[in-house]
């Protein structure tokens, strides 16, 4: 029987199709439009592209060989992990000339060393699976994000993800000791060293962490683990304002800063969407509030010290009016229920309609002023807009999201996205912040780069890109704006 190539496969240069099929093996290359459909649209449904094929290598060697073939035939490559990008960073353009290289089949935990407290792991392992593997070894992988069930380690590192525990453990780059990268020309860059100290030239791994796949494709990493906590306490608190939330953070930090594992802010509007649109996510407090804080304390020590610390801190906060109501988790199930209220904010906003997301950071002391000024600016720009900020107030990262007015046309609202983003970003800039705290630049925010990172900074980025990827094949159109 004669096999007919799909239209997508026919767009591959002569010779590349069979070379890729040989390199990737059975099931390693998708060319039918129906098979490729999940790989060419982003999670937010903002970007829709086309691909000439989807490569799914099962090993780092196959991944490198696929990149070599693409370099030989001048085929652009879009790296993709769990496809959870908020900024279109893993979606191809509409030309149909790029190949999506998905990492999900490179999914082995190669090793866990309990003495070094390290994990050697491949790019396609989901963050949740990596957390579970660390837990089984009696250790903790402290990185935690809402999409951890889908997000893969390679993408997490390529975007330098932050998440809920950044306040204590730092962003993804702080957890990486070693890295393995497939370069655009097909060579393997082996930086897999389990060393805390290695002062031998440039720290090359840091160039690839946060590069969003524009310099190469991360195939494996060595991650620093931590002792597993034996005592965890979580509480949901009602507060009157972002300023009160920040003062509460200062109160906990003044008592025992090393105990704070997470400190999350949620606006009343955003929490209202969660309670309304997410099944089994119900507020366990007597009355709705203007804002909420989820605080989690953790320690590798057993005993009641954390409980006492939580109760004393919240008791004082309730007495002086800093907190108007609070509930403490009495079991792991209740702790999970509290975290569900926080983790479902993005999904609830998606269900509420079109939304414009501003993933920004400002100095901690500027957070109340930022939220107040940005809220007023957006409400003046689009009357009736639902201002729904939430996020990692403990590290200065607020997801200042705007949901379309009730009953409004979603497409018309999204057509104003640059107006909204620019209004918010202007205030962020005045306060000394960043227009992207943890989601990256992707293709959504490249237009901001010349104004924010222009001059010598952007020039150095372009020079690095040209040196490592001279043909410009890796994730074109992402991070760096077109010249």
Automatic annotation (TrEMBL):
Membrane-crossing residues? Answer: none
**MF (Gene Ontology):** catalytic activity; FAD binding
Named cofactor requirement(s): FAD
Q: Which UniProt key words apply to this protein?
A: FAD, Flavoprotein
Q: Which GO terms describe its biological process?
A: respiratory electron transport chain
Q: Which Pfam families match?
A: FAD-oxidase_C, FAD_binding_4
Please state every residue range assigned to the domain named FAD-binding PCMH-type.
Answer: 47-228
Q: Which InterPro entries match?
A: FAD-bd_oxidored_4_C, FAD-bd_PCMH, FAD-bd_PCMH-like_sf, FAD-bd_PCMH_sub1, FAD-bd_PCMH_sub2, FAD-linked_Oxase-like_C, FAD-oxidored/transferase_4, Oxid_FAD_bind_N
The record's annotation in PANTHER family points to:
BLL6224 PROTEIN, D-2-HYDROXYGLUTARATE DEHYDROGENASE, MITOCHONDRIAL
Family the entry assigns:
Belongs to the FAD-binding oxidoreductase/transferase type 4 family.
Q: What is this protein called?
A: D-2-hydroxyacid dehydrogenase
């Amino acid at each position: 029987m004669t096999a007919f190539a799909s239209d997508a496969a026919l767009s591959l240069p002569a010779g590349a199709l069979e070379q890729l099929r040989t390199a990737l093996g059975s099931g390693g290359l998708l060319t039918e439009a129906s098979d490729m459909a999940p790989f060419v649209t982003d999670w937010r449904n903002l970007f829709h592209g086309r691909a000439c094929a989807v490569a799914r290598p099962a090993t780092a060697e196959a991944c490198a060989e696929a990149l070599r073939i693409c370099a030989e035939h001048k085929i652009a490559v879009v790296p993709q992990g769990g496809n959870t990008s908020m900024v279109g960073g893993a979606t191809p353009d509409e030309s149909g000339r790029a190949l999506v290289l998905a990492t999900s089949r490179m999914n082995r935990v190669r090793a866990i060393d309990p003495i070094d407290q390290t994990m050697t792991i491949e790019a396609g392992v989901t963050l949740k699976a990596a957390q579970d593997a660390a837990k089984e070894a009696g250790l903790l992988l402290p990185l935690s994000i809402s999409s951890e069930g889908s997000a893969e380690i390679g993408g997490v590192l390529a975007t330098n993800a932050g998440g809920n525990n950044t306040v204590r453990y730092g962003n993804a780059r702080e957890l990486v000791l070693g890295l393995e990268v497939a370069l655009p020309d097909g060579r393997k860059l082996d930086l897999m060293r389990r060393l805390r100290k290695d002062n031998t030239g440039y720290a090359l791994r840091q160039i690839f962490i946060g590069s969003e796949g524009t310099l190469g494709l991360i195939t494996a990493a060595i991650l620093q683990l931590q002792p597993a906590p034996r005592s965890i306490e979580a509480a949901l608190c009602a507060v009157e304002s972002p300023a009160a939330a920040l003062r509460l953070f200062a109160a906990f930090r003044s008592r025992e800063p090393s105990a704070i594992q997470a400190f999350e802010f949620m606006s009343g509007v955003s929490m209202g969407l969660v309670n309304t649109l997410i099944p089994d996510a119900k507020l366990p407090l007597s009355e709705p509030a203007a804002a909420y804080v989820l605080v989690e304390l953790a320690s590798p020590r057993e005993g009641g010290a954390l409980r006492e610390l939580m109760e004393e801190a919240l008791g004082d906060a309730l007495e002086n009016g800093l907190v108007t109501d609070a509930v403490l988790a009495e079991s792991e199930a209740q702790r999970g229920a509290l975290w569900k209220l926080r983790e479902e904010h993005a999904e609830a906003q998606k269900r509420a309609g079109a939304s414009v997301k501003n993933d920004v950071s400002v100095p901690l002391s500027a957070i109340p002023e930022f939220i107040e000024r940005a809220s007023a600016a957006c409400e003046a720009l689009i009357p009736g807009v639902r201002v729904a900020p939430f996020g990692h107030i403990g590290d200065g990262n607020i997801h200042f999201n705007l949901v379309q007015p009730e009953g409004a046309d979603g497409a018309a609202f999204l057509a104003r996205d640059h107006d909204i983003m620019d209004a918010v970003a202007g205030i962020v800039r005045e306060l000394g912040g960043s227009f992207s705290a943890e989601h990256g630049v992707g293709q959504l925010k490249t237009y901001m780069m010349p104004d924010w990172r222009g001059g010598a900074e952007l020039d150095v980025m372009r020079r690095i890109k040209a040196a490592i990827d001279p043909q410009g094949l890796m994730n074109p159109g992402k991070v760096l704006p077109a010249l």
